[in-house]
Amino acid sequence: MASLARTFASSLSKRTYTSASASAPALKRFYSIAVNNKEEEQKNRNASGLMNKSLNTISSQSTMQMRHNTTNIPDFSKYKKVKNSGEASRTFTYMMIGATGLVSAAGAQATVTDFLANMSASADVLALAKAEVDMSAIPEGKNVTIKWRGKPVFIRHRTDAEIAEANEVQVSSLRDPQTDAERVKDPHWLVMLGVCTHLGCVPIGEAGDFGGWYCPCHGSHYDISGRIRQGPAPLNLEIPEYSFQDDKLIIG
Ligand code: FES
Asked: What residue ranges carry the coiled-coil annotation (predicted)?
């Protein structure tokens, strides 16, 4: 109410043609004009407020932008991908893949080489793999048994009579048919493993019904060529790998 009165007074003071003796319609019109002026003033004030708010927002944004602009941002332009650099990039990729493959292959080869070097037999083991026998120390008609790779080896220096006896046998009648020539390199020297082919016992030399070897475990008889002639053993005594070097017999 006080505000309305103030407005009215202001309107009166602004109008030069008003007088104290104004009529009721005139007063009404004055009042209407005053109200309209008040509404316009309010509108202007609102608009001004909005504008002030917007200006404040813009001002704060500008301030923030100015603050951002003060930050020292590094220049990354030299790291940017150059146009048409695809070919160079591909070449570099291929080169890297090739280099990686080469390094991997070299590493694998070194690993395999080391592994094989460790797995292969050493010199002392290889020396034990072979046995050397002085043949001149074995008289004719005598047996010698040596140990080779943990197994007994029978060496028989056969006489001519024994060779003839071995060749007289009817091969087709044998359980494990083999001629004497197939079992020896030199007819005077019979070399074979001293392991019974039945269950692995060691037969006795110059024994049995056929003048060769006899296995007492289950009664197998072998002839002068080491062929099974009687008993449960299924096969002839095994012939190992051997060779002659001068007057030496090399087994293995
Ligand atoms: S092991 Fe020789 S006969 Fe059985």
From this structure: none
Task: Using the structure block, give the residue that is written with the tokens 């570099």.
Answer: 92
Tallying the residues shown for the chain, one arrives at 252
Q: What is the pTM of this model?
A: 0.54
Query: What does DSSP say about strands 248-251 and 131-134: parallel, antiparallel, or unpaired?
Result: antiparallel
Q: In a mutational test of the pocket of ligand 1, which residue from 193, 195, 196 has the highest number of ligand atoms less than 8 Å from its CB?
A: 196
> Which residue's CA is the closest to the ligand 1 atom numbered 1?
199
Tokens of 161: 């009579």
Question: What digits encode the pLDDT tens for the residues 56-114?
Answer: 555 555 555 555 567 788 888 888 777 666 777 788 889 999 999 999 999 999 888 88
d(CA 234, ligand 1 centre) in Å: 10
Q: Is residue 218 annotated as part of the catalytic site, yes or no?
A: yes
Nearest CA to ligand 1 atom 4: 218
Three-class SS state of 220 = strand
